Amino acid sequence: MADGKKITPKKPVICAVFASGNGSNAENILRHAQSRGGGISIPLVICNKAGAPVIVRAEKLGVACKVIERAGTKSEQEAAILAALKEHDVEWIFLAGFMAILSPDFVAAYKDRIVNIHPSLLPQFPGKDGYGDAFRAEVPVSGVTLHYVDDGIDTGPVIAQKSFAREEGDTLETFRARGMELEYALYREFIDILAQRAAA
Ligand code: GRF
Asked: Does domain 13-195 have CATH number 3.40.50.170?
């Protein structure tokens, strides 16, 4: 620089995505972070199921996907996950279809830095099948929730929610597809806020 001042670029926020299955949320998160061209870096996906489609999705986007299945105790598995996170200096964790409950010790290690997407308007329909439960209950309006993870199941503080109407003729598939688009949007918005906050 002519005036001798150095411009130090802001360090990106380093995040990891945890997923167990299809991985459409994981892909949306990775694509969005990459397309921003800065602010958020996601060098790692953690998957707890060998053969899950999310592994290929991550690899196609050039992101390492580490498969860490539970072979022995839960604490051994979590220790392996924590070691992988440490290797990449991960600061934030985005759960995206991660079908395992994290232990209180793990949650404490990333206190207020683990975020989950849930397919219902919490506190309605917690658990594994938010879309199915909401659809069968015939609620006229359902939605999706982005929330911090605490020691309970789908009980952590809500960050944001988006709702959608059940439409005439909806099947569970069309109902779910409408919700999934909102899941992707919530994570994209959260990533933007996190990046902006880090740049401020
Ligand atoms: C999403 O509906 C998410 O909310 C729920 O599991 C589903 C995962 O879908 N926890 P995908 O693997 O991201 O496609």
From this structure: yes
